[in-house]
Amino acid sequence: MKLVIGITRPEKANDVLESLFRAEVRGLSISRVQGHGGELERVETYRGTTVKMELSEKARFEIAVSDEFVDRTIEALCEGARTGEVGDGKIFVVPLEQAVRIRTGETDHGAVTPVGA
Ligand SMILES: Nc1ncnc2c1ncn2[C@@H]1O[C@H](COP(=O)(O)OP(=O)(O)OP(=O)(O)O)[C@@H](O)[C@H]1O
Ligand SMILES: [Mg+2]
Fold this sequence. Notes:
Elements: E1 2-8, H1 13-22, E2 29-35, E3 40-45, E4 48-53, E5 56-65, H2 70-81, E6 89-95, H3 109-112
Helix pairs in contact: 1-2
This protein binds adenosine-5'-triphosphate and magnesium ion (MG).
């Protein structure tokens, strides 16, 4: 299992949800985060102009999937989130040791595959 973390523009979050749905990826969490992706902000001070690391609002998707779903999850995130401009976001794939569905006690593959899917 893997935890796929996708950081996207918040205004692309609905497009990402749509493409995940089309890819039959179900079960995810979204949060709002602030992030820095290398862009610098110019700040005027009395000494002149300096630069500081710019923070921007991003949507953070967390999607726990079994291994055979990793590629289609990444493809769906890219398809939904890409504009081609800097700041489109990033995807991190992290090994996931355990998952538990609280209601049934199912674990791992049975727990990340949504009921009815
Ligand atoms: N190395 C990183 N570690 C953790 N989060 C990151 C990292 N790089 C980017 N992010 C997150 O992703 C968001 C978007 O990053 P961004 O799209 O600017 O990445 P990038 O690599 O600079 O690509 P681009 O060239 O398209 O701007 C950041 O605001 C931050 O939340
Ligand atoms: Mg960037």
